[in-house]
Amino acid sequence: MLPTLGIDISKDSFHLELSLNEKLRHRKFANRKEGFGELRAWLAKHKATQVHACLEATGPYSEALAVYLHQQGHIVSVVNPVQIKAFGQSELRRNKDDRPDAGLIRRFCEKQRPAPWTPPPVQVRELQALTRHLENLIETRQQQINRLEATNTKNVAKSLRKLVAHLDAEIKRTEQQIDDHVDRHPDLKQQSELLESIPGVGKRTAARLLAEITDISLYKSARQVAAYAGLTPRNNRSGTIRGKTRLSKTGNARVRKALFFPAIVAKRHNPIVRAFCERLSGNGKNKMQVIGAAMRKLIHIVFGVLKSGKCFDPSHELLLNSVS
User: Fold this and answer.
1) Is residue 86 within 8 Å of residue 93, measured between CB atoms?
2) How far apart are CA 67 and CA 305, in angstroms?
3) How far is it, in rounded angstroms, from Cα 36 to Cα 46?
């Protein structure tokens, strides 16, 4: 069994707990290139030529280190923070600080042996960075618009209008960069065209889905993709009490966000989604339940189109939902 390495990572640093030869070792390194090199030397010093490293998925904070460890030949698992939290609750943990968290993650790795993680291809990682940057720019623009609408000060309003204009230019430039990036990579371009064939899915949504789903071959079924996005139903039942069924929302929130408005459009213009939603509405489901179900139906269609390599065809609903 490989030595296990628990990593608790933050913006500026990461704490480690290494289990090697029945002994625990702890260190802290800077979360940057120099720190990665020091980690490599530290592992070599302890003759840990290959470890099973485990860290939480924290977006840009964890990705660079995870890629580095994978490139060094280590087994890397990048896990949902919810799993670590649940594991900690099973140990009845009451306190939180960095060093115990590294130990918690190491124990989780040792007991659960999570699946190895493989970094997405470089072109997908770049697409992910661009689409997330675009999302942040749009959110920042809306914040400034809200401030502009609320201010009564002439000079502040003038400054905010300049800032919004600058953000508009950056948004347009980033959108063009995304388009150019997709066009430069035939596999991304082909997949984007497949997704854009689905009524309700446009160019921007296609890019966001490709960036976040990363590789459709990693999923064996549409349900797995829906679970990754947190779009599977979560029952609320206890004995004779039956509460409302809701979306689990334990998954990639960016996929859910990317599908919300497309699902509303698909509800009206996608024949498969429209018929599905009409049936649910007829059964008494409320508006938000229907939209949630439309998002889930849409991700099933996304899976079928990408997995089959064929454009959307409403007459192939069974194929679109069950390709494996």
Assistant:
1) no
2) 29
3) 16
Cα dist from 207 to 37, 112, 178, 288, whole Å: 34, 34, 8, 25
CATH architecture of 4-112: 2-Layer Sandwich (3.30)
**pLDDT tier, 60 (very low <50, low <70, confident <90, very high otherwise):** confident
Q: In what order do the strands lie in the sheet with 23-30?
A: 23-30, 13-20, 4-9, 52-56, 75-79
Phi, psi (rounded to 5 degrees) for 77: -120, 125
Alpha helices in the chain (DSSP H): 33-45, 60-71, 81-90, 98-112, 122-150, 154-184, 186-196, 203-213, 222-228, 253-269, 271-282, 287-308, 317-322
Residue 60: burial class (beta carbons within 10 Å; 0-12, 13-18, 19+) = exposed
Residue type for position 297:
K
Q: What is the pTM of this model?
A: 0.83
* Integer Cα distance of 131 and 221 in angstroms: 25
- How many Cβ atoms sit within 10 Å of the Cβ of residue 283? 9
**3-class SS at 246?**
strand
CB atoms within 10 A of CB 273: 28
The residues spanned by each domain of the chain are 4-112, 122-184, 186-324
pLDDT single digits (tens) 182-212: 999 999 999 999 999 999 999 999 999 999 9
